[in-house]
Amino acid sequence: MRFNFESPEPIYLQVAEQVEEAIFTGIYQAGEQVPSTTAVSKEFHINPATVLKGINQLVAAGMIEKRRGVGMFVTADAAEMIRAKRKEQFFDRYVSRFTSEAQKLKLSEAEVITLIKRAYHDKS
User: Which long-range contacts (CB under 8 A, 24 or more apart) does 4-11 make?
Assistant: First the structure.
């Protein structure tokens, strides 16, 4: 995990995003325990309350479950939840803007599809 203390993004959100990324990329698997708030706070010199606030974002989203006296664990469907969330973000950030610009340029659907295919194959 890496945190940017100069970023305008709050550290607790960075904590949530870093743990979410670790779940999505398979570093933390379903059913696996994630590091404790104490461990993260000590390793990265972050206030434990800040780490807890970030983790609680994932608990509230159903991606992590707390087991009293045991720790925090990745839920069975956490990776799929993250994928669905990212798919929506992708649409909002890129597809929606892209199609809006395509409409302004009066590109046909076929032209848009051709452009997407060209970009997709050029980058693979």
Answer: 11/46, 11/50, 11/54
104 burial type by CB count under 10 A (0-12 exposed, 13-18 middle, 19+ buried)? exposed
Host domain of residue 90: 79-123
Shared domain for 68 and 88, answered yes or no, is no
Residue 1 lies in a domain: no
Distance CA 24, CA 33 (A): 14
Candidates 104, 98, 100; CA nearest to 116 is 98
Q: Is residue 6 a part of any domain in this protein?
A: no
Q: pLDDT (tens digit, 9 = 90+) per residue, 75-107?
A: 999 999 999 999 999 999 999 899 999 999 999
Number of domains in the chain: 2
pTM equals 0.80
Predicted confidence (pLDDT) per residue in 41-55, tens digit:
998 899 999 999 999
Tokens encoding 39:
């461990």
22 and 59 assigned to the same domain = yes
